[in-house]
Amino acid sequence: MDVLYSRGRATVAEILEQIPAPPSYSAVRAMLRILEEKGHIRHEQDGARYVFLPTMTRDKAKRSALRHLLQTFFDGSAEQAVATLLDVSSSKLSDADLDRLADLIEKARAGGKR
Fold this sequence. Notes:
Blueprint: H1 2-7, H2 12-18, H3 25-37, E1 41-46, E2 49-54, H4 58-74, H5 78-89, H6 95-111
Antiparallel strand pairs: 1-2
């Protein structure tokens, strides 16, 4: 999906060129078939080649993936997910990062009081 989002459209061969230590052609083709069945991508025929394109914006895909991650690993709890992220990232977060997160929390808190 990263290749499709960065290029906008790509063939299997073009996707393989962009992946470090790529899997086999048939493995990429199988993954693309699954993504197409799930509605994440579509294809157009260009002669004998299939050209694949994403069907949703990167932002929409990101939100969908995050919802799935929350449900799968955190029982739908954003609090648990954020706590885990802070635990894993605590040594990498600067004071400015923490200030921005605190601002986001305050905005969320203020938005909930409407």
